[in-house]
Automatic annotation (TrEMBL):
InterPro entries reported for this sequence: Aminotransferase_I/II_large, AON_synthase_class-II, PyrdxlP-dep_Trfase, PyrdxlP-dep_Trfase_major, PyrdxlP-dep_Trfase_small
Named cofactor requirement(s): pyridoxal 5'-phosphate
Protein's UniProt name: Glycine C-acetyltransferase
Pfam family of the protein (one): Aminotran_1_2
Stored PANTHER family: 8-AMINO-7-OXONONANOATE SYNTHASE, CLASS II AMINOTRANSFERASE/8-AMINO-7-OXONONANOATE SYNTHASE
GO molecular function: 8-amino-7-oxononanoate synthase activity; pyridoxal phosphate binding
GO terms, biological process: biotin biosynthetic process
SUPFAM superfamilies recorded: PLP-dependent transferases
Domain Aminotransferase class I/classII large span(s) in chain numbering: 51-112
Keywords: Pyridoxal phosphate, Transferase
The organism of origin for this protein: Thermosporothrix hazakensis
Length: 119
């Protein structure tokens, strides 16, 4: 299947997008966003059914745990919501140093470097 040439004017863009949308609808490939009142809970209500939300990162309920939520709020009040800069430029925080030390002890190593990685 060959791709259509990109449109050049606003009218062409609208027509092009409408054709693509119609093609998706005809093939039952049009995705819609389900409306969830509380989408971050481990269990969700969807179409009148109670479901375990395994597509969420919160199926264990940690993101909505009251103690963890309160700790996050307190940390935000104390430290703000951003590192502001690289640790090499702006300096290291006591909390981050403690995290590295605790993580190293937990894994039985001299040092540890917590990394955030999206797969």
């Amino acid at each position: 299947m060959t791709e259509e040439q990109p449109p050049v004017s606003t009218t062409h863009i609208q027509q092009f997008m409408q054709r693509r949308l119609t093609a998706l609808q005809k093939r039952n490939l049009l995705r819609t966003l389900p409306l969830l009142e509380h989408g971050n809970e481990p269990r969700i209500e969807l179409a009148g059914r109670s479901l375990l939300n395994l597509s969420s990162n919160n199926y264990l309920g940690l993101a909505t745990d009251p103690a963890l939520r309160d700790a996050a709020i307190e940390a935000t009040r104390r430290d703000g919501c951003s590192s502001g800069s690289s640790r090499l430029i702006a300096g290291n925080s006591v909390a981050y140093q403690q995290l590295e030390q605790r993580l190293a002890r937990f894994i039985g190593q001299e040092r540890a470097l917590p990394l955030y990685q999206r797969l």
